[in-house]
Amino acid sequence: MNTKYDVIVIGGGTSGLMATIAASMQQANVLLIEKNRKFGKKLLMTGGGRCNVTNCQSINHLIEHIPGNGKFLHSTFAQWNNQDIIQFFENAGVQLKEEDHGRMFPITDQSKTIVDTLVNKLKELKVTCLMQTKVEKLIHDGSAIQGVRTDKGEFLAPSVIIATGGKTYPSTGATGDGYQLAKQVKHTITPLYPTESPLISNASFIKERTLQGLSLRDVQLSVIDTNEKIVTKHQLDLLFTHFGLSGPAALRCSSFINQLLKKQEVVQVSLDCFPKVSKQALIQQINRLLKGQEKKVLKNALKGFLPERLLHFYLEQLSLSEVTVSQLTEKQLASLCELCKSFVIPIERTFALEKSFVTGGGIHLKEINPKTLESKKINGLYACGEVLDINGYTGGYNITAAFCTGHVAGENAALTASYYKY
């Protein structure tokens, strides 16, 4: 087997596959090293196995939805962005469809379609792939990269790309190898923490599973700090579970909660079931609902106002379960509306990094050139995808960052390698 290449890519996930393709399309001779038996293990799991391949909204929208250093991606997106991802797959014969919030999926609704397309492209470009191989060391002379040492021998190249992913879902091979490789050449790794992670609460109603399995549509969840300021808020769907909260609204709050948990033991989140309605308007709405139902108990008179289990739970919290409409005071009505607009739930922690969707933290971005994604520590070393200190919300944002940084790193790594041919 050949041991000399133009570009070596470490990791055959989302960013690594795209980096390999981009470098090969620039006529670079590329070696792709993957420690699993197959490519794209985590990619197969994304979007519930359907693969939310990107998000079709504006660049500004993308950056806003990548709260973990999204602004760093301005240069990347100026070179290759979500529209290029869509074009790439459509040129390869994969039709995509748009769903809510700009999320793009293959019309087959199968992640396998996306992975197969990328792997077929590798074959078409005649890329050398080394599977079930672990990279143990970066070979360098202190100023420039020279290659890698693996458990199957040494391979040399003037350009090396670290595309090993984060530390979530270790079953996919994401065990943090890239961080260790980057540390070998004096890169700083910012503290790792879980993002896009379900929230764990010790509240009695959670422990008693009172609302387990209840799903709420289009509600607002806010994260409140110790000064009672809203740190972030998200209006999306929410799910009550046996351990706490899940669903898009909870996942989007998790990175902010983990940041606060570094300084405090418990973080409060506030649930607003009627984010588009003011408290005053809600009082008027309930009064209209109750008109002519004076003899009924509240839980029957307010049927359909909230999901039944949640309505009964809220009424119990306020000792209003057996109160009739005629007995309801203005103060009690105001308290009910307050609870509907701001039900506070304590969060003790999120799922561990290994069970979360996305890793926060990674290779410090001050040590990476934003235009090329080349290391500022070692010439010819590049990094892309989740190994960088970049994280976004679910909804196609992380995968977009991975594909785009992969493409930009691949092109620039090929360009660097081309200088060595002359």
Provide a brief overview of the structure.
By secondary structure, the protein is of the alpha+beta class. The chain is built from 14 helices and 20 strands.
Helical segment count: 14
Strand order of the largest sheet: 17-16-13-14-15-12-18
Total beta-strand segments:
20
Structural class: alpha+beta
Q: Main sheet?
A: 7 strands, antiparallel
> Overall mean pLDDT score?
95
List the helices and strands and how they pair.
Elements: E1 7-10, H1 14-25, E2 30-33, H2 41-45, E3 54-55, H3 59-64, H4 74-79, H5 82-91, E4 96-98, E5 103-106, H6 111-124, E6 128-130, E7 135-140, E8 145-150, E9 153-156, E10 159-162, H7 177-184, E11 193-195, E12 199-200, H8 204-207, E13 215-224, E14 230-240, E15 244-246, H9 248-260, E16 267-272, H10 279-290, H11 298-301, H12 308-317, H13 330-341, E17 343-347, E18 349-350, E19 358-360, E20 381-383, H14 397-418
Parallel strand pairs: 1-2, 1-10, 2-6, 10-20
Antiparallel strand pairs: 3-5, 4-5, 7-8, 8-9, 11-19, 12-15, 12-18, 13-14, 13-16, 14-15, 16-17
Helix pairs in contact: 1-6, 1-14, 10-13
Would you mind describing this structure in some detail?
The protein is an alpha+beta fold and 422 residues long. It has helices at 14-25, 41-45, 59-64, 74-79, 82-91, 111-124, 177-184, 204-207, 248-260, 279-290, 298-301, 308-317, 330-341, 397-418; strands at residues 7-10, 30-33, 54-55, 96-98, 103-106, 128-130, 135-140, 145-150, 153-156, 159-162, 193-195, 199-200, 215-224, 230-240, 244-246, 267-272, 343-347, 349-350, 358-360, 381-383. The strands form five sheets. A seven-stranded antiparallel sheet has the order 17-16-13-14-15-12-18. A five-stranded parallel sheet has the order 6-2-1-10-20, with helices on both faces. Strands 3-5-4 form a three-stranded antiparallel sheet. Strand 1 (7-10), helix 1 and strand 2 (30-33) form a beta-alpha-beta unit. It is elongated and about 90 Å long. The two termini are 24 Å apart.
